[in-house]
Each structure stands twice: as structure tokens, then as C-alpha cells.
TrEMBL record:
Family: Belongs to the LemA family.
Main location as per UniProt: membrane
Keyword field: Membrane, Transmembrane, Transmembrane helix
Recorded topology in the membrane: Single-pass membrane protein
Record-given protein name: LemA family protein
Keyword NADP carried by entry: no
Source species: Lacipirellula limnantheis
Transmembrane region(s): 6-27
Subcellular location, record wording: Membrane
InterPro entries cross-referenced by the UniProt entry: LemA-like_dom_sf, MamQ_LemA
Amino acid sequence: MNDAAIILIPIGGVALLLLIWLIATFNRLMSVRQHMRESWADIDVELKRRYDLIPNLVATVKGYAAHERGVLEQVVKLRNTAAANHGAAAEQAVDETALAIGLKQLFAVVENYPQLKADAHFLALQQELALTEDRLAAARRFFNANVRELNQLCDTFPSNLIAGMFSVERGSYFEVASDAERTAPRVTVGA
């Protein structure tokens, strides 16, 4: 072997290893970003389910609590605002927080109507909403875990170099605004 080959073979090996690492890191970034998008789609499905349940719940309550019109209209308005928001997770979290507070107010109104609390249709809607809230909470946790992983890759060396080269942006978490709004709206079933 000549001297040039002895020098070029190790340099070529290092370059090949560097290229393999670059491709693997890029693919990992893209995979995590895709998981984040997929988990956001799961949240979107649960939000749409919630949006579909709310008008039925409001219509059922209207039959019993017609004079509580302001609360009912506010919940419908909050639902429409939340359903229309298709921005980033942080932006949607603001509308979802307001909707959760509105639902709590609606369930507080329901507490004053014992016949409504015992109505089979209302109980079924309430149970579906509670299940949806549970699934939504699980989907949020999964989404936020994917955001955390993507952000870690974007922030830590050396993967941050690849993220910067390919303009991979950090994700935003989907979280509620305050501790008071962190609980799912519920009323005791059968009370």
C-alpha cells in the first residue's frame, strides 16, 4: 500500500462513521417529531369527541334548568371557541382551560336539580364526558412525553447540531394554565 492509501482509509472510515451518525440522528429526530404529531392527532380526536358531547349535555340540562341560560350559553360559546382553535398546543391549552372551567360551572348548576342528576340520559352523557376527559388526559401525557423527547434532542449536544442544521423546531407542551384547572370536570354519579 502506498502512503496516500494508508492515510485515506482511516479518514474515509471516520467520514463514513460520521455520515452514519448524522443519518441516524436525523432519522431519530424525524421519528420523534412524527410521534409528536401522531400523539397530537390523538388529542384532537378526544377534543372533537368532547366537543360533540357538550351540546347534548347542554340540551339535556336546558330542559331542567331553563333559567340558567347564561351558564349554558357560556359553555356553548367556550366550546365553539375551543373547537375553532387549531393553533399550537400552548394556544389551544388556554381555550381548553376556559372550557374546563365552564363545564365545572355547568356541573355546579346541575347540583341544584336532583331530578336532572338522576336522569338516565344525563348520567350517560356525564359518564361519556368523564371517560373522554380521562382519555384526553392520557393523550396529553403521551403528547407531552413526545414533546419532551424532541426538546431534549434539540437541546442536547451533539443532536442539537443536527436539529439546527435541518431547522427542527422545539415542540410546545399542552398544559393547563393553573392548578385549579387541572382536574377533570366531574359530578358524583348517582348521588
